[in-house]
Amino acid sequence: MIFHITPQQSWEQGKQIGVYHSDTLATEGFIHCSTPKQVARVATVFFKGQKALVLLCIDPAKVHAEIRYESAAGDSYPHIYGSLNLDAVCDVLDLPANVDGSFHIPALPGPS
């Protein structure tokens, strides 16, 4: 499973046009996570205090674009280089911010 944090509005725009593009696509691909620990770290570092975020749960077997696993902060993170086909998204979870700006990470689905 691959997880991607994005503003709700960006996800809604992707659904309207039929394909999702991350705002960092041109420069670094998507920043994705593959574990709850990675989701918590990325949410805290890059999204602290932001509201109206969702967590896309992505089946890597259904992704049409290239996936590369790259090292950062002593861990391996999956990056998708190219547009994300919507049928690869198997669930969309709310990612609520706590009062202190940190995040409550929802129960994440495991591999199917």
Keywords:
3 helices, three-stranded antiparallel beta sheet, 112 residues, single chain, alpha+beta
Q: What layout of secondary structure does this protein have?
A:
Elements: E1 2-7, H1 8-17, E2 19-20, H2 25-28, H3 36-47, E3 53-58, E4 66-72, E5 75-81, E6 84-85, E7 89-95
Antiparallel strand pairs: 1-3, 2-6, 3-7, 4-5
3D architecture notes:
This protein starts with a strand and ends in a 17-residue tail after the last strand. By secondary structure, the protein is α+β, with helices and mostly antiparallel strands. The protein has a 3-stranded antiparallel beta sheet. It has helices spanning 8-17, 25-28, 36-47; strands at 2-7, 19-20, 53-58, 66-72, 75-81, 84-85, 89-95. The protein is globular.
What's a quick, concise take on this entry?
This protein is of the alpha+beta class and 112 residues long. It is built from 3 helices and 7 strands; from the N terminus they run βαβααβββββ. The protein is globular, with a radius of gyration of 13 Å.
What fraction strand?
Answer: 25-35%
Number of strands: 7
Shape, principal axes of CA atoms? globular
Taking strands numbered 1, 2, ... along the chain, how are they ordered across the largest sheet?
Answer: 1-3-7
Q: Termini distance?
A: 8 Å
Mean of residue pLDDT values? 84
User: Which structural class do the helices and strands define?
Assistant: alpha+beta
Largest sheet: 3 strands, antiparallel
Radius of gyration computed on alpha carbons: 13 Å
Poorly predicted spans: 25-29
Number of H/I helices: 3
The arrangement of helices and strands along the chain is: EHEHHEEEEE
Helix content: 10-25%
